[in-house]
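Exercise 7. Given the encoded structure of a 75-residue chain, write a plausible sequence.
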């Protein structure tokens, strides 16, 4: 069963990503964009294994990517 993060937890995870990974969130979003076309759970696994990210950070990155992608479709 996957964890559900609150909006506050999501924001906190995103804020810590640069310090924990040495890369900005926008860099990670670009990595997801340029990566393989996978479903959410597969992207999560890919980020964790290919880029050695913690579960929470990987999930926050993919969730943020999906939020921003959905917002672009609305414009």
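Solution.
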């Amino acid at each position: 069963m996957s964890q559900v993060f609150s909006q506050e937890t999501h924001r906190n995870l995103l804020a810590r990503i640069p310090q924990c990974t040495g890369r900005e969130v926008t860099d990670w979003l670009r990595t997801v964009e340029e990566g393989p076309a996978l479903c959410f759970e597969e992207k999560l696994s890919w980020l964790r294994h290919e880029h050695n990210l913690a579960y929470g950070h990987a999930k926050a990155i993919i969730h943020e990517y999906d939020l921003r992608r959905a917002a672009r479709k609305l414009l």
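Remark. The chain has a mean pLDDT of 91. Students should compare their own answers with the one above.
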